[in-house]
Amino acid sequence: MVHLAPWNVAESNFPHESELEQQLTFLLKYAILAPSSHNSQPWKFSVESNDLAIFPDFSRSLPVVDPYHRELFISLGCALENLLVAADHFGFKTAVDYLPEGEEAGPAARVSCKPGKEPFSRSLFHSIPRRHTNRLRYGPISIEKELLDQLIDCRRENDLMLEIVVGQELKSQVGELIIQADQKQFSNKGFREELAEWLRPNIGKVVDGLPGYTQGVSTLPSLFSSMFVRGLNIAKGQMNKDRKLVDNSPALTVIFSKENDTESWLKVGQFYERLALLATNIGIVQAPMNQPVEIPELADELADLLGRKGRPQMLFRMGHAKPAQPIPRRPLEEVLI
Ligand SMILES: Cc1cc2nc3c(=O)[nH]c(=O)nc-3n(C[C@H](O)[C@H](O)[C@H](O)COP(=O)(O)O)c2cc1C
Protein backbone atom coordinates (compact mmCIF):
# COMPACT_ATOMS: atom_id res chain seq x y z
CA MET A 1 0.00 0.00 0.00
CA VAL A 2 1.12 3.56 -0.60
CA HIS A 3 2.20 5.07 2.72
CA LEU A 4 -0.66 7.27 3.94
CA ALA A 5 -0.26 6.61 7.69
CA PRO A 6 1.21 10.10 8.41
CA TRP A 7 -2.17 11.63 7.48
CA ASN A 8 -3.77 9.89 10.48
CA VAL A 9 -1.94 12.09 12.97
CA ALA A 10 -4.20 12.66 15.99
CA GLU A 11 -4.09 15.78 18.13
CA SER A 12 -5.06 13.65 21.15
CA ASN A 13 -1.68 11.85 20.91
CA PHE A 14 0.27 15.00 21.76
CA PRO A 15 2.66 13.88 24.55
CA HIS A 16 1.63 16.43 27.20
CA GLU A 17 3.52 14.62 29.97
CA SER A 18 6.75 14.03 28.01
CA GLU A 19 10.03 15.91 27.67
CA LEU A 20 10.10 19.05 25.53
CA GLU A 21 12.09 17.31 22.77
CA GLN A 22 9.40 14.68 22.36
CA GLN A 23 6.74 17.36 22.23
CA LEU A 24 8.63 19.27 19.53
CA THR A 25 9.18 16.07 17.57
CA PHE A 26 5.42 15.57 17.62
CA LEU A 27 4.96 18.96 15.90
CA LEU A 28 6.99 17.65 12.97
CA LYS A 29 4.22 15.17 12.20
CA TYR A 30 2.32 18.20 10.91
CA ALA A 31 5.31 19.71 9.08
CA ILE A 32 5.73 16.62 6.87
CA LEU A 33 2.16 16.91 5.58
CA ALA A 34 3.17 20.06 3.67
CA PRO A 35 3.02 20.23 -0.13
CA SER A 36 6.26 20.05 -2.11
CA SER A 37 7.11 20.11 -5.80
CA HIS A 38 6.66 16.61 -7.30
CA ASN A 39 6.01 15.47 -3.69
CA SER A 40 9.79 15.33 -3.38
CA GLN A 41 9.63 16.21 0.35
CA PRO A 42 13.09 17.83 0.18
CA TRP A 43 13.43 18.38 3.94
CA LYS A 44 15.17 17.16 7.05
CA PHE A 45 14.56 18.27 10.63
CA SER A 46 16.49 18.36 13.86
CA VAL A 47 15.28 18.87 17.41
CA GLU A 48 17.64 20.22 20.06
CA SER A 49 16.42 21.46 23.44
CA ASN A 50 14.11 24.43 22.61
CA ASP A 51 14.95 24.55 18.92
CA LEU A 52 13.57 22.95 15.79
CA ALA A 53 15.57 23.33 12.59
CA ILE A 54 14.53 22.63 9.02
CA PHE A 55 17.22 21.71 6.49
CA PRO A 56 17.15 21.43 2.69
CA ASP A 57 17.77 17.92 1.38
CA PHE A 58 19.51 18.65 -1.92
CA SER A 59 19.60 14.95 -2.79
CA ARG A 60 15.88 15.44 -3.53
CA SER A 61 16.27 18.47 -5.76
CA LEU A 62 14.88 18.77 -9.29
CA PRO A 63 17.78 20.08 -11.40
CA VAL A 64 15.82 20.42 -14.66
CA VAL A 65 12.63 22.10 -13.50
CA ASP A 66 14.14 23.85 -10.48
CA PRO A 67 17.84 24.52 -11.17
CA TYR A 68 18.22 27.26 -8.53
CA HIS A 69 16.26 25.40 -5.80
CA ARG A 70 13.57 28.08 -5.83
CA GLU A 71 10.72 25.58 -5.50
CA LEU A 72 12.74 23.46 -3.09
CA PHE A 73 12.88 26.39 -0.65
CA ILE A 74 9.21 27.23 -1.28
CA SER A 75 8.44 23.64 -0.26
CA LEU A 76 10.50 24.10 2.92
CA GLY A 77 8.53 27.29 3.61
CA CYS A 78 5.30 25.27 3.39
CA ALA A 79 6.64 22.78 5.96
CA LEU A 80 7.76 25.68 8.17
CA GLU A 81 4.26 27.20 8.10
CA ASN A 82 2.67 23.90 9.14
CA LEU A 83 5.17 23.68 11.96
CA LEU A 84 4.35 27.19 13.19
CA VAL A 85 0.60 26.61 12.99
CA ALA A 86 0.98 23.36 14.98
CA ALA A 87 3.33 24.98 17.53
CA ASP A 88 0.85 27.78 18.05
CA HIS A 89 -1.99 25.31 18.48
CA PHE A 90 -0.15 23.34 21.17
CA GLY A 91 0.77 26.47 23.13
CA PHE A 92 4.34 27.26 22.03
CA LYS A 93 5.59 30.79 21.52
CA THR A 94 7.83 30.71 18.45
CA ALA A 95 10.52 32.88 16.88
CA VAL A 96 11.94 32.12 13.43
CA ASP A 97 15.53 32.77 12.40
CA TYR A 98 15.74 32.50 8.59
CA LEU A 99 19.01 31.18 7.14
CA PRO A 100 20.91 31.59 10.43
CA GLU A 101 24.44 32.83 9.80
CA GLY A 102 27.65 31.08 10.72
CA GLU A 103 26.34 27.54 10.37
CA GLU A 104 27.99 25.54 7.62
CA ALA A 105 25.52 23.46 5.60
CA GLY A 106 23.10 25.24 7.86
CA PRO A 107 19.37 25.08 8.23
CA ALA A 108 16.94 27.02 6.08
CA ALA A 109 15.30 28.16 9.28
CA ARG A 110 15.64 27.65 12.99
CA VAL A 111 12.54 27.95 15.16
CA SER A 112 12.85 28.52 18.87
CA CYS A 113 9.83 27.20 20.75
CA LYS A 114 8.96 28.25 24.29
CA PRO A 115 6.17 26.38 26.04
CA GLY A 116 3.67 28.11 28.26
CA LYS A 117 1.74 30.24 25.81
CA GLU A 118 -2.02 30.05 26.19
CA PRO A 119 -3.05 27.28 23.73
CA PHE A 120 -4.75 28.93 20.82
CA SER A 121 -6.88 26.84 18.53
CA ARG A 122 -6.46 28.51 15.18
CA SER A 123 -8.76 26.72 12.81
CA LEU A 124 -5.94 26.49 10.26
CA PHE A 125 -4.46 23.72 12.40
CA HIS A 126 -7.39 21.42 11.70
CA SER A 127 -6.97 21.98 7.97
CA ILE A 128 -3.42 20.59 7.90
CA PRO A 129 -4.44 16.91 7.47
CA ARG A 130 -7.38 17.92 5.23
CA ARG A 131 -5.42 20.02 2.71
CA HIS A 132 -4.62 18.24 -0.55
CA THR A 133 -3.67 19.44 -4.01
CA ASN A 134 -6.85 18.97 -6.01
CA ARG A 135 -6.20 18.33 -9.73
CA LEU A 136 -9.82 17.60 -10.65
CA ARG A 137 -11.74 19.80 -13.05
CA TYR A 138 -13.50 22.45 -10.95
CA GLY A 139 -17.19 23.31 -11.04
CA PRO A 140 -18.44 26.52 -12.65
CA ILE A 141 -19.53 28.21 -9.40
CA SER A 142 -17.55 31.40 -8.77
CA ILE A 143 -15.90 32.09 -5.43
CA GLU A 144 -17.79 34.60 -3.30
CA LYS A 145 -16.12 37.98 -2.88
CA GLU A 146 -16.23 37.67 0.88
CA LEU A 147 -14.16 34.46 0.69
CA LEU A 148 -11.68 36.00 -1.75
CA ASP A 149 -11.26 38.90 0.70
CA GLN A 150 -10.49 36.47 3.52
CA LEU A 151 -7.74 34.94 1.37
CA ILE A 152 -6.32 38.34 0.48
CA ASP A 153 -6.32 39.32 4.16
CA CYS A 154 -4.17 36.39 5.28
CA ARG A 155 -1.03 37.99 3.80
CA ARG A 156 1.43 39.01 6.53
CA GLU A 157 4.61 39.55 4.56
CA ASN A 158 4.98 43.10 3.17
CA ASP A 159 7.35 41.96 0.45
CA LEU A 160 4.85 39.53 -1.05
CA MET A 161 1.87 40.35 -3.26
CA LEU A 162 -1.20 38.36 -4.19
CA GLU A 163 -3.22 38.66 -7.38
CA ILE A 164 -6.46 36.73 -7.80
CA VAL A 165 -7.60 36.69 -11.43
CA VAL A 166 -11.32 36.05 -11.92
CA GLY A 167 -12.10 37.91 -15.17
CA GLN A 168 -12.60 35.51 -18.09
CA GLU A 169 -10.36 37.33 -20.56
CA LEU A 170 -7.39 37.80 -18.25
CA LYS A 171 -7.75 34.24 -16.98
CA SER A 172 -7.61 33.04 -20.54
CA GLN A 173 -4.43 35.06 -21.19
CA VAL A 174 -2.77 33.58 -18.10
CA GLY A 175 -3.99 30.18 -19.36
CA GLU A 176 -2.19 30.86 -22.65
CA LEU A 177 1.11 31.18 -20.74
CA ILE A 178 0.41 27.88 -18.98
CA ILE A 179 -0.14 26.20 -22.34
CA GLN A 180 3.05 27.71 -23.79
CA ALA A 181 4.95 26.44 -20.76
CA ASP A 182 3.43 22.94 -21.20
CA GLN A 183 4.63 22.93 -24.78
CA LYS A 184 8.18 23.88 -23.78
CA GLN A 185 8.41 21.55 -20.79
CA PHE A 186 6.81 18.42 -22.20
CA SER A 187 8.75 18.69 -25.48
CA ASN A 188 11.95 18.65 -23.41
CA LYS A 189 13.18 15.09 -22.90
CA GLY A 190 15.18 16.12 -19.81
CA PHE A 191 12.04 17.53 -18.19
CA ARG A 192 10.06 14.37 -18.95
CA GLU A 193 12.85 12.14 -17.65
CA GLU A 194 13.00 14.06 -14.39
CA LEU A 195 9.21 13.99 -13.99
CA ALA A 196 9.20 10.25 -14.80
CA GLU A 197 11.64 9.68 -11.90
CA TRP A 198 8.94 10.94 -9.52
CA LEU A 199 5.91 9.16 -11.00
CA ARG A 200 4.75 6.23 -8.88
CA PRO A 201 2.30 3.34 -9.24
CA ASN A 202 -0.90 3.39 -7.20
CA ILE A 203 0.24 0.31 -5.30
CA GLY A 204 3.41 -0.90 -3.61
CA LYS A 205 5.72 0.66 -1.06
CA VAL A 206 5.36 4.28 -2.12
CA VAL A 207 6.44 7.04 0.29
CA ASP A 208 7.03 9.99 -2.04
CA GLY A 209 6.48 11.18 -5.62
CA LEU A 210 3.24 11.26 -7.56
CA PRO A 211 1.04 8.14 -7.69
CA GLY A 212 -1.00 7.78 -10.89
CA TYR A 213 -4.25 8.58 -9.09
CA THR A 214 -3.12 12.21 -8.68
CA GLN A 215 -3.72 12.49 -12.45
CA GLY A 216 -6.79 10.24 -12.56
CA VAL A 217 -4.73 7.23 -13.74
CA SER A 218 -6.06 3.89 -12.46
CA THR A 219 -3.93 1.13 -10.96
CA LEU A 220 -2.93 -0.97 -13.99
CA PRO A 221 -1.86 1.93 -16.25
CA SER A 222 -0.19 3.61 -13.25
CA LEU A 223 2.40 0.79 -13.39
CA PHE A 224 3.52 2.13 -16.78
CA SER A 225 3.10 5.94 -16.33
CA SER A 226 6.78 6.50 -15.77
CA MET A 227 7.79 4.63 -18.94
CA PHE A 228 5.07 6.38 -20.93
CA VAL A 229 6.05 9.92 -19.87
CA ARG A 230 9.75 9.19 -20.38
CA GLY A 231 9.30 7.87 -23.89
CA LEU A 232 6.55 9.96 -25.47
CA ASN A 233 6.18 13.65 -26.20
CA ILE A 234 2.82 14.19 -24.52
CA ALA A 235 2.88 17.99 -24.88
CA LYS A 236 -0.30 18.18 -26.97
CA GLY A 237 -2.38 16.07 -24.57
CA GLN A 238 -1.12 18.05 -21.57
CA MET A 239 -1.90 21.37 -23.29
CA ASN A 240 -5.48 20.31 -24.09
CA LYS A 241 -6.01 19.03 -20.58
CA ASP A 242 -4.65 22.19 -18.95
CA ARG A 243 -6.66 24.47 -21.23
CA LYS A 244 -9.86 22.78 -19.99
CA LEU A 245 -8.72 22.93 -16.37
CA VAL A 246 -8.02 26.66 -16.63
CA ASP A 247 -11.28 27.42 -18.47
CA ASN A 248 -13.22 25.67 -15.72
CA SER A 249 -11.43 27.28 -12.80
CA PRO A 250 -13.23 30.28 -11.31
CA ALA A 251 -9.95 31.85 -10.14
CA LEU A 252 -6.25 31.80 -10.94
CA THR A 253 -4.03 33.10 -8.18
CA VAL A 254 -0.45 34.34 -8.30
CA ILE A 255 1.94 35.05 -5.43
CA PHE A 256 4.68 37.56 -6.30
CA SER A 257 7.74 38.53 -4.29
CA LYS A 258 9.74 41.76 -4.45
CA GLU A 259 13.05 39.90 -4.18
CA ASN A 260 13.94 36.59 -5.75
CA ASP A 261 16.18 35.11 -3.06
CA THR A 262 16.19 32.19 -0.64
CA GLU A 263 14.52 34.00 2.24
CA SER A 264 11.75 35.25 -0.07
CA TRP A 265 11.19 31.71 -1.35
CA LEU A 266 10.77 30.43 2.21
CA LYS A 267 8.26 33.19 2.93
CA VAL A 268 6.40 32.51 -0.33
CA GLY A 269 6.06 28.89 0.81
CA GLN A 270 4.66 30.02 4.15
CA PHE A 271 2.16 32.33 2.48
CA TYR A 272 1.10 29.73 -0.09
CA GLU A 273 0.57 27.10 2.63
CA ARG A 274 -1.40 29.55 4.78
CA LEU A 275 -3.62 30.30 1.77
CA ALA A 276 -4.05 26.58 1.05
CA LEU A 277 -5.02 25.89 4.68
CA LEU A 278 -7.44 28.80 4.79
CA ALA A 279 -8.93 27.75 1.45
CA THR A 280 -9.44 24.22 2.84
CA ASN A 281 -11.11 25.75 5.85
CA ILE A 282 -13.63 27.72 3.81
CA GLY A 283 -14.41 24.92 1.36
CA ILE A 284 -12.25 26.01 -1.58
CA VAL A 285 -9.89 23.60 -3.33
CA GLN A 286 -6.68 24.58 -5.11
CA ALA A 287 -3.88 23.19 -7.25
CA PRO A 288 -0.63 24.77 -8.41
CA MET A 289 -0.02 25.14 -12.16
CA ASN A 290 3.44 26.53 -11.80
CA GLN A 291 4.68 25.80 -15.31
CA PRO A 292 5.06 29.44 -16.52
CA VAL A 293 6.67 30.48 -13.26
CA GLU A 294 9.31 27.78 -13.80
CA ILE A 295 10.46 29.34 -17.09
CA PRO A 296 12.04 32.78 -16.46
CA GLU A 297 10.90 34.46 -19.71
CA LEU A 298 7.31 33.28 -19.20
CA ALA A 299 7.46 34.39 -15.55
CA ASP A 300 8.39 37.88 -16.84
CA GLU A 301 5.49 37.78 -19.30
CA LEU A 302 3.13 36.81 -16.49
CA ALA A 303 4.31 39.76 -14.38
CA ASP A 304 3.86 42.14 -17.36
CA LEU A 305 0.41 40.75 -18.13
CA LEU A 306 -0.74 41.35 -14.56
CA GLY A 307 1.04 44.71 -14.36
CA ARG A 308 3.21 43.67 -11.40
CA LYS A 309 6.81 44.61 -10.69
CA GLY A 310 7.62 41.56 -8.54
CA ARG A 311 8.69 38.04 -9.50
CA PRO A 312 5.82 35.52 -9.81
CA GLN A 313 6.56 32.56 -7.53
CA MET A 314 3.41 30.42 -7.30
CA LEU A 315 0.51 30.16 -9.73
CA PHE A 316 -2.47 28.08 -8.69
CA ARG A 317 -6.11 27.64 -9.61
CA MET A 318 -8.88 27.76 -7.03
CA GLY A 319 -12.48 26.65 -7.10
CA HIS A 320 -14.94 24.00 -5.98
CA ALA A 321 -14.60 20.25 -6.51
CA LYS A 322 -15.02 16.89 -4.81
CA PRO A 323 -12.29 16.32 -2.21
CA ALA A 324 -8.96 14.97 -3.48
CA GLN A 325 -7.23 11.91 -2.02
CA PRO A 326 -4.17 12.20 0.24
CA ILE A 327 -0.87 11.11 -1.29
CA PRO A 328 2.06 9.37 0.42
CA ARG A 329 4.53 10.85 2.85
CA ARG A 330 7.82 9.48 4.15
CA PRO A 331 7.65 8.34 7.77
CA LEU A 332 8.87 11.02 10.19
CA GLU A 333 11.84 8.85 11.29
CA GLU A 334 13.26 9.08 7.75
CA VAL A 335 13.52 12.86 7.85
CA LEU A 336 14.85 13.32 11.39
CA ILE A 337 18.55 14.10 11.72
C1 LIG B 1 6.60 24.82 -5.02
C2 LIG B 1 5.52 23.89 -5.50
C3 LIG B 1 5.26 23.79 -6.86
C4 LIG B 1 4.26 22.94 -7.32
N1 LIG B 1 3.97 22.90 -8.67
C5 LIG B 1 2.99 22.10 -9.11
C6 LIG B 1 2.62 22.11 -10.48
O1 LIG B 1 3.16 22.87 -11.29
N2 LIG B 1 1.64 21.27 -10.89
C7 LIG B 1 0.99 20.44 -10.01
O2 LIG B 1 0.11 19.69 -10.44
N3 LIG B 1 1.30 20.43 -8.69
C8 LIG B 1 2.27 21.24 -8.22
N4 LIG B 1 2.56 21.27 -6.89
C9 LIG B 1 1.81 20.41 -5.95
C10 LIG B 1 2.64 19.21 -5.53
O3 LIG B 1 2.77 18.29 -6.59
C11 LIG B 1 1.97 18.57 -4.31
O4 LIG B 1 2.05 19.47 -3.24
C12 LIG B 1 2.63 17.28 -3.89
O5 LIG B 1 2.47 16.31 -4.88
C13 LIG B 1 2.06 16.76 -2.58
O6 LIG B 1 0.68 16.54 -2.70
P1 LIG B 1 -0.37 17.24 -1.72
O7 LIG B 1 -0.22 18.72 -1.93
O8 LIG B 1 -1.71 16.74 -2.18
O9 LIG B 1 -0.06 16.84 -0.33
C14 LIG B 1 3.53 22.14 -6.40
C15 LIG B 1 3.80 22.26 -5.03
C16 LIG B 1 4.77 23.13 -4.57
C17 LIG B 1 5.03 23.27 -3.10
Brief description of this entry?
The chain has 337 residues and is an alpha+beta fold.
Provide an overview of this structure.
This protein is of the alpha+beta class. Helices cover 39% and strands 17% of the residues. The strands form three sheets. The chain has a four-stranded antiparallel β-sheet, covered by helices on one side. Strand 1 (43-48) and strand 2 form a beta hairpin. The site of flavin mononucleotide (FMN) has 19 residues, from helix 2 and strand 9.
List the helices and strands and how they pair.
Layout: H1 20-31, E1 43-48, E2 51-56, H2 70-89, E3 92-98, E4 109-115, H3 123-127, H4 145-153, E5 160-165, H5 168-186, H6 189-197, E6 199-200, E7 210-211, H7 219-222, H8 225-231, H9 235-247, E8 251-257, H10 262-281, E9 285-288, H11 296-305, E10 311-319, H12 332-335
This protein binds flavin mononucleotide (FMN).
The unique ligands bound to this protein are: flavin mononucleotide
- Amount of helix: 25-40%
Radius of gyration: 19 Å
CATH topology of the largest domain: NADH Oxidase
The class by helix and strand makeup works out as alpha+beta
Number of domains: 2
Q: What's the count of strands? A: 10
Assess the beta-strand content as a share of residues: 15-25%
CATH class of the largest domain: Alpha Beta
Cα(first) to Cα(last) distance is 26 Å
Record the strand order, biggest sheet.
Answer: 1-2-4-3
CATH architecture of the largest domain: 3-Layer(aba) Sandwich
Please state the overall shape, judged from the principal axes of the Cα atoms.
globular
